[in-house]
Amino acid sequence: MRWCKAGRLILAASALALAGGCGSAQKREAPVDPGLVFEALDKNKDGVLNPEEFAALSKDREAMNRLFKDLDQDHNGVLSRDEFKPAGLIYRW
Ligand SMILES: [Ca+2]
Ligand SMILES: [Ca+2]
Questions:
Q1: E strands present in the chain
Q2: pTM of the full predicted structure?
Q3: If 78 and its partner were Cys, which of 14, 16, 48, 70 is the partner (CB 3.0–4.6 Å)?
Q4: What is the 6 CA–ligand 2 centroid distance (Å)?
């Protein structure tokens, strides 16, 4: 399973668009798969999101820390793919 470089860039760009575009009047595009957002955020590709990777979603670091704690169901300090899914309800992707 190899991804082309362009694909990765598009994913990263989508995540950045989400990070900067919440609540703004951007035109609606096809819903983003939370799995793809997860992939884009998981910078070190270890299959989980640490607080720094998760915080890339928003500039509001404090809010993201709070949300991270809420999502981290097993309190192991990282978000698994399943734990990350509810974040999509908040960001509506
Ligand atoms: Ca990671
Ligand atoms: Ca966890």
A1: none
A2: 0.65
A3: 48
A4: 30
